[in-house]
Amino acid sequence: MRVRIQSLLLCLILLPATVQAGVLPPTWPGPAPCNTTLQACIDATPDSQTISIETDAPIAENINLYNRSLALVAGEGRRPTFAPGNWISVSSAPILGNQNVTLRGLRLSNAYVRAVYLGTGTATFDFSGLVLEQTSSAPTYIRVEANSGNTVQARLYDNRIRGVPAALNAGSIELVNAGGTLNASAYYNQISSTSAVATDGAGIFVDVTGGGGGTVKLHGNTIRGGYFRSGLFVSEGLFSSTTSSFSARVYSNVVVCADPAVAGSSTGRGIGFTANNGSINAQAVNNTLTRCSSGISATQWSGGSGSAAVTGLVKNNLVVGERGLDFTPALTPSLSNDYNLLNVNSNIATPGANTITSNAQLASLSAPRLRYNSPAIDAADNATLALGLIFNSLPSNDADGLRRIKGGSGGTADIGAYEFGDSGLLHVATSANIVGGYITRIDNPVLDNRSGANPIATPNWHGGSSGGTSNDNYLGIYYFSGNWLLFNEDQTTPMPLRAAFNTFVPAAGSGSFRHVSSAANTIGFGTRIDDSTVNGLPERIVLATQNWSAGSNVYNAHPIGLSYVPAGSSGNWHIVNIDRAGGGAMPVNAGFNVYAQEASPNAFRVSAYAGGSSIALDHPLLNDTACARVQVTRLDTGNSVPRNFDVYYGSGRWRIFSYSALASGTQFNVLVDPAQVFECTDRIFANGYE
Questions:
Q1: Which of 229, 286, 402, 535 has the most CB atoms in a 10 Å sphere around its CB?
Q2: Please, which residues have CB within 8 angstroms of residue 261's CB and are 6 or more apart in sequence?
Q3: Extended beta strands in 150-198, E state
Q4: Rounded distance between C-alpha atoms, residue 69 and residue 88, angstroms
Q5: Of 89 and 408, which is predicted with more confidence?
Q6: Coil, strand or helix at 184
Q7: Whole-structure pTM value
């Protein structure tokens, strides 16, 4: 039985694959002044410091960050949890200058995180990995607020909230601007209503009043439940006669409204833009909305002036529900719409010429990913999406956190929030498919007769048998006569029966490619990758598998890893033989399959700070999910690594296991495919409380 020697909880590290020395942050509980309450530790810690919370015991205190610039983060392997009802407040005096607060990896119940900036400069708020759950009537939300004369830069990333808004003009996430400048990005947050029927408020509630401005970006969020305002609600001038003008960029979000089959339920709205006297420059692009009474609305507050306007564009959205586009004509003469798929009963706005009106062909209304025969596939306006992502500096991933643009010859995007095309499988070596002793043939329609595919494989110790099967060998893959085959690169070690491999088959397109070592790009142990999807991008999540048939049938019996090497203002990723011994030089004409994408909650980097032999992956789609097919590639730290690694599942967690000891600072790139997890479990929404 495999023993877990070192278990580290997942930490999202979107940084270069270079281990950098640094001063350890203050810890709580820890030495004085952090040996009593957390608030006392905060009060005694100088500004610009990071406090690492190193306990899982309930934190039975409210936290007040008044006039403070600090970071409160979960320590490695920790899930800091506040006792029910205990909140976190970030505030400031009107004379305060700049403020900078980071909160990461904290858990609250029946409580809120509220950041209200009243100072005279700029506040920067970065809230990520927060988990809030409501089990009583206590208000439960995250709120960020700018005020007159100041600026707030806010980042809300990968937070999870379960509950209902406190009022009609409230939300589980609230981004509010009362006369200042609010530049906020809310990316990949998961919000789930605990009400079976539609309820007051919004999942994400945005309101700009009092002459405020700025830009709010909502990308990749998933909201489940019916809301009378909207799942995503963007308002100008609520209860304010002063004209405000701001921009809203709403891309690749998913809203699944209340189920109309529930007796007495109202379905709620999907995305809403509502102006009073000012203007909203709106872009609603590539969102998916199902079970809603209206998909995307653009309306005016009662009593608003004739100068109010919602301008911009509504494109590439997928709407399945009662009404598709609900625009007030006098408010929206400059709000264009086209290339939407409207599987609805009616529209108020006249659909654009390239609108599709047919069955969306979704997996289900609750899990609205595209089926293989959906008319939404490759039907989006690519230029609108691509330029929108570039000019708005938005993530290049879809709502699953995987690549947004896929497909051959430059790629064409799909309509809606999810991009179709990736697939995966578990391959298990059996007596029927082991050939030549050290080779196992994959026989699966996902890969059969697909010579142009670039599969990525990760050994799965537990995948073929309950007892686990080890294969501590250098893994390769190749294509021959209609099949892909996995093999041991040393060509001598027999492929064990029941050896298993998680195999990811990315769709063609940018980010999936092959690399071949050559005299020009290879020196010593490594070969330099030259591809626009990774060049100069050390934060990219890159995976690699040796592909014998991609090069000149060259064997490379060494464990491989990835390393990013800066070069002047740019840099390159390298594939490296990380054993660095026994003639470990990288051969010329060796082939590799490479996958690369922007980091996201489902494509991330983990570190083994304390050494040991394994790293536990604490991820809501992996926890308690034995059928998940996680993909992993090791990063090179400069230390010799003579042996290999695999992944395995036990006691509700997936882990990376290294056959040689993990040096402190060893990192791995990790990929989780949410569609694959859904297909094997029907898990629609993982709340992170397992």
A1: 286
A2: none
A3: 151-157, 160-163, 171-178, 181-187, 190-193
A4: 14
A5: 89
A6: strand
A7: 0.94
